[in-house]
Structure formats: structure tokens, C-alpha cells
From TrEMBL:
GO terms for molecular function: kinase activity. This is Nucleoside diphosphate kinase regulator. Residues 50-125 form the Transcription elongation factor GreA/GreB C-terminal domain. Residues 5-42 form the Regulator of nucleoside diphosphate kinase N-terminal domain. The gene is rnk. InterPro entries: GreA/GreB_C_sf (IPR036953), Rnk_N (IPR029462), Tscrpt_elong_fac_GreA/B_C (IPR001437), Tscrpt_elong_fac_GreA/B_fam (IPR023459). It comes from the Bacteria. Keywords: Kinase, Transferase. The lineage of its organism: Bacteria, Pseudomonadati, Pseudomonadota, Gammaproteobacteria, Lysobacterales. Pfam families: GreA_GreB, Rnk_N.
Length: 127
């Protein structure tokens, strides 16, 4: 398995995500994987986040390296998720995988059913 890329997460996002995981009981593989990502992240204040980093609310264009497909999505909290509108929950495998990555970084991530995918961040827009 390739080395896991370094990730940067805002302290504000981390606090909200930790509360979300606590209220959800950290049940399920994705919740556990997200908790592990938060444990290894570098934290910065929201205003000190580098350009091109995937944060909550980011509009992301990524490439699934296993299929070559490009995806455009917005990373959101579970109540805001709507797959048809491209709003992907942080508790979905793709959402948890992308958090904290920068443009150009690739991560290998487990999917349901024992499959894995490799996602590369192509572009990030933060409002």
C-alpha cells in the first residue's frame, strides 16, 4: 500500500467532526477511518489553512484512479448530504478519504465490500 499522504484539517472542522463522531458513537468502518484520519492530521486555525486543501464545505474535483472517472462534489455533514446534487457526506467513504488532502495528492481508501479505490484531488474551491 502506498504511503499515506499528510493531511491538514482546520481546528474548527476537527472540533465539529469529533463531536459528530462522538454523537454517532463512531460506529462503522468509515467513522473509525475518519477518527484515524483526525488522529494523524496536522491542525491549523481556519484562517491559516493553505489554499487547495479539502475542508468541510469544499467543492472538490477528484479523479478515481481505479476507473479514470472524474467526480465533482461538495463535502458536507450528514444531514446536508444529497448524492443527486453532488453533496457527499463526510461519513461516506469518499468524503472521509478526501478530508485534509491537497490538490495533487492521492490516497488509497477502502470501500464497502472489501474493494479499495485511489482518489486524486484535481481541484478544490473553498467559499
Amino acid at each position: 500500500m502506498p504511503a499515506t499522504p499528510n493531511i491538514v484539517v482546520s481546528r474548527q472542522d476537527a472540533a465539529r467532526l469529533e463531536a459528530l463522531l462522538e454523537s454517532a458513537g463512531s460506529e462503522g468502518d468509515v467513522a473509525r477511518a475518519l477518527a484515524a484520519e483526525l488522529d494523524r492530521a496536522e491542525y491549523r486555525e481556519h484562517g491559516d489553512m493553505p489554499d487547495g486543501v479539502v475542508m468541510m464545505g469544499s467543492h472538490v474535483r477528484c479523479i478515481d484512479e481505479t476507473t479514470g472517472e472524474q467526480h465533482a462534489l461538495t463535502l458536507v455533514y450528514p444531514p446536508e448530504a444529497n448524492f443527486a446534487e453532488g453533496r457527499v457526506s463526510i461519513l461516506a467513504p469518499v468524503g472521509a478519504a478526501l478530508l485534509g488532502l491537497s490538490v495533487g495528492q492521492t490516497i488509497q481508501w477502502p470501500l464497502p465490500g472489501g474493494r479499495t479505490t485511489r482518489l486524486t484531488v484535481a481541484a478544490v474551491a473553498n467559499d
